[in-house]
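Renewal narrative, Specific Aim 1. Our central claim is that a sequence can be written position by position from structural information alone. The example that follows is taken directly from our test logs and has not been curated for this report. It begins with the structure tokens describing the chain, in the order in which they were read.
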């Protein structure tokens, strides 16, 4: 595991963007699972502004690690957030974008999206393999849309499952643990003091770490990198 502790959110955005641009250079095609959340917003703005013309977006293929079951125009949509902060500002072919259809029936969409992953990503031991999975970690230790009260979803034999947000009851489609841990690289983007206790437990394997889905992230043969600001990393420094 590699841990990068940066001064602030802007430095996280800069450092991750440099890493992303470098990774893109080394690949003929880069298949990336995106996340929602607060940190990716800043990262997407930075990427678009500073690497918008440098990166060859024709070879980048975007997917989502999780999506809220709402239409793509809804302010809750992870796809809409990505359009607003990244996709609308770069030149990327429409056929490189594989969004979760949040407006569809959740169960049917989880099956459909799982098939999309199987049909468009390279398979490694029969499991779709991303070059890069970007993850956030919620204040409760959730990642993608696998929440502590439904941690069993992690071990599903399916590529995607339907999850329910524990407070709002909102349905979500999420990739499962087998897809996350099959990736060549997994990058956590985590910022803010509200995450510091969970960051400590997950990284140091302390306290209740076993009940947090973020603790299950451990790529089988790939690389795991945490990009954090000082506030999130306070308890591990
Ligand atoms: O609901 C979600 O939250 C997590 C974490 O988001 P954050 O704002 O606490 O950083 C995110 O990874 C996930 O994609 C999103 O749907």
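The sequence written for that structure reads:
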């Amino acid at each position: 595991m590699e841990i990068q502790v940066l001064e602030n959110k802007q430095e996280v955005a800069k450092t991750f963007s440099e890493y992303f641009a470098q990774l893109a250079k080394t690949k003929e095609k880069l298949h990336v699972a995106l996340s929602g959340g607060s940190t990716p917003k800043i990262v997407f703005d930075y990427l678009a502004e500073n690497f918008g013309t440098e990166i060859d977006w024709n070879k980048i293929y975007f997917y989502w690690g999780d999506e809220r079951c709402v239409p793509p125009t809804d302010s809750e949509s992870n796809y809409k957030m990505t359009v607003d902060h990244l996709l609308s500002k770069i030149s990327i072919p429409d056929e490189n974008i594989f969004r979760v259809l949040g407006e569809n029936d959740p169960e049917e969409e989880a099956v459909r999206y799982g098939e999309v992953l199987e049909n468009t990503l390279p398979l490694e031991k029969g499991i779709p393999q991303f070059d890069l999975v970007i993850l956030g970690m919620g204040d409760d230790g959730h990642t993608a849309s696998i929440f502590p009260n439904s941690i069993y979803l992690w071990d599903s034999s399916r590529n995607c499952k339907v999850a329910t947000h524990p407070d709002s009851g909102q349905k979500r489609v999420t990739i499962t643990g087998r897809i996350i841990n099959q990736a060549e690289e997994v990058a956590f983007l985590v910022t803010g003091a509200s995450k510091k206790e969970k960051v400590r437990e997950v990284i140091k394997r302390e306290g209740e770490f076993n009940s947090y889905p973020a603790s299950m992230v451990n790529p089988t043969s790939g690389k795991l990198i945490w990009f954090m600001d000082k506030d999130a990393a306070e308890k591990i420094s």
